[in-house]
Amino acid sequence: MTEKRTQWLRYAVQGSFFAFLMWIGWRHQVLGGGPKGVGSVDAYCPLGFVESLYSVFTSGDWLRRTAPSTLVLLAGIVLGGLLVGRVFCGWICPLGTLGEWSATLGRRLGIRRRELPEAVDRSLRALKYLVLAVVVGLAWRTGSLAWRDVDPWVAAMHATEGWAGVLERPWAYGVLFGAVLLASLWIERFWCRYLCPLGALLAPLQKLGLAKIQRNETTCISCAACTWTCPVRLDPMTTVRTVSSECIACGRCIAACPVPRTLEFAAPGKPEKPPCRFSTLTVGLVGLFFFFGAYGTAKVTGHWATFYAPPEGTLTGVRSVEGVFGWMTFEQAAKTVGLPVEQVLALAELPDDTPRDVSMKKLDGVNDEAVKNALVAYFTSLESRETSQGQTTGQPGSTSTPPSSPDSIRGSMTLLDVGSTFGLDPAAILAEAHWPQESSLDRPLKELAVESGKEVQEIRDAVSRLLKR
């Protein structure tokens, strides 16, 4: 196969991966996650393993939305990269594909290709290493995918959500349209060159990889076609062997060269022995072999998993919310956090007749993220009160004895305060007091009483009756 035909094959591989991942994103929205659904798009991003590394080694838990599949994919990319370099970036990555498509569109629209001054370009390339450090550092510090709200990968894979998705994560879509698509109309693969944290992670593989672009000085006619077509602004014409970590193994420079075999991928050779040479097709196929090989091996051996939920009962308090996923039903979510399902519904400000045996993702008017945020707020408030009570008694972290009488309930307390203090379900207190079930659980009782025309004493009386049962 000629080098130019190989480029068409590469384009087909890029398009196929992009279409497949878009399909994955759409299926996740339709079916949700979990054992009966489709994994989150984060479970298909190799960077997820690095973000989860600290959590996996310290607690054995994966960060929310990541899964063992991220390790499998990264292993395949690393193994292939050690031989043939960054094939993932040049043949597979959907953001790189979007950058190339955008650049092609720019040329067809008559937009002149631009390049930054060399000194500026060199300095900006270091930005992606800073981005990688920030992304991983925040993940390790917060125990979450803190980068997710600005991640263009997440935005691209949720494009099937339409305008609702844009409103949910506007910063991520801003980065996608600005740094990945718009900027690439002038500077091809702008995102890949200057900002991509995964590219920063994989760059050392190109340095270590055996196959690199090599130029035959004897046959080179110095036409600069290779330099002009390079998507990451390398200059193969001025060096015998391109050892830059920025090379993405796409082979476009080889396809553009008018003199056959002047540019080729080659392994390092000895002075008395010519180097072993490879076609772009061989390099691409080797990279794809290791990528699919890692997936196939994990699948056959039962190690492929695109979702992860902490074992039941291993997390308590606010950390238990980490085990709540959108694919769960309210019954499963309540069991995970150790609360009555009625209380979970009340905390989420949902009606009591909300279906409890249907996935939260599939319920109209239910936002699983809002449910989780409400649970986090509840446990955070509870733990804060326990800490302050422990400090009052001189025993840090301990809880004081509950008041002996409901008469101690004050209008400044919330229903959550009352429920946790007396060990009662806030929803049950509302029902017993004949207060509106939709009453907010985290607002002062005196405010709720004014709005609903009730008296705080009714809450005291309800608590008293419940405690006697």
Characterise this structure:
54% of the residues lie in helices and 2% in strands. It is mainly α. It folds into two domains: 3-300, no CATH class; 317-468, no CATH class. A three-stranded antiparallel β-sheet has the order 1-2-3. Helix 3 (68-84) runs parallel beside helix 12 (197-208), helix 3 runs antiparallel to helix 15 and helix 16 packs across helix 17 (341-347). The longest helix has 29 residues, at 3-31.
Nutshell version of this structure?
With 469 residues, the protein is mainly alpha-helical. 54% of the residues lie in helices and 2% in strands.
SSE map:
Blueprint: H1 3-31, H2 47-59, H3 68-84, H4 87-92, H5 94-108, H6 118-125, H7 127-142, H8 152-157, H9 163-168, H10 170-182, H11 190-194, H12 197-208, E1 212-215, H13 225-229, H14 252-256, E2 263-266, E3 277-278, H15 280-301, H16 330-337, H17 341-347, H18 368-392, H19 415-422, H20 426-433, H21 445-452, H22 456-468
Antiparallel strand pairs: 1-2, 2-3
- Please compute the radius of gyration using only Cα atoms: 29 Å
Share of residues in helices: 40-55%
Number of domains: 2
State the major sheet: 3 strands, antiparallel
